[in-house]
Specification:
With 271 residues, the protein is an alpha/beta fold. It is 50% helix and 9% strand. Helix 7 packs antiparallel against helix 8, helix 9 crosses helix 10 and helix 10 packs across helix 11. Bound molecules: zinc ion.
Length: 271
Amino acid sequence: MLDWLRRRREAASRPIDEASWREATASWLFMRGLSADENARLKALAERFLAAKHFSAARELHLTDRMLVEIAAQACILVLELGFEWYEGWSEVIVYPTQFVPERETVDEAGVVHLTRDPMAGEAWLGGPVVLSYEDVALAANERERVAGYNVVIHEFAHKLDMRSGDPNGFPPLHRGMSAAAWKEAFVAAYDDFCAKVDAADALPSRRVQAALDALPLDPYAAESAGEFFAVASEGFFETPELLAPAYPAVYEQLRMFYRQDPAGRLARIS
Ligand SMILES: [Zn+2]
């Protein structure tokens, strides 16, 4: 019996050695200012993630231990103060070497069926897998090529949290003491403002559009829908809180209460 219990406990976590942990996590923006205790708890969660989730490689990608650690650690920063239970109810992570092109049929308002083949960096299925392009996962650690605020793992796992209350609509289950009205007010106002800014940028002479979009506090993809706004704002919250907090303080405050973390405060403490 004891033996069985011990085995069960062992299987609940897959150890990551200290050196590979430090190496994998060293250059990520969201690690800035994390205390030794937070770092250790993040590692423990990532070890649990590795044991609990099944990884599969697509298109002959060779999935290395390092890749698994990178995905698990970035996924777990979101639930550092929420608990692993928030990722229960599904089991698979599928990793492509580069962006993937799923064929999708959509029906428009006129009843016309469109077949789309848009390359994707990631995807999260309701009750199903998370799909990631490893090339995009690796970008977060590339200090020269990354776009600050872009993190495909944080993005897709924010959708997973949102999906705990059904379709991803930017309204994850809130904690006791949080106000649904305050959440809605903060997000609707920021989303409307952000969409207006993206429209204004798009209306500029073409040579100025990109610079105007680059100057926005979040990736313009946030204007796609309320669900995407929450996922992109989550990327900004962890990766570039110094941009999100001043631009949309009410959204920052709601996310601080939701994730129970204060990345802007962590940055202020180390600067
Ligand atoms: Zn998305």
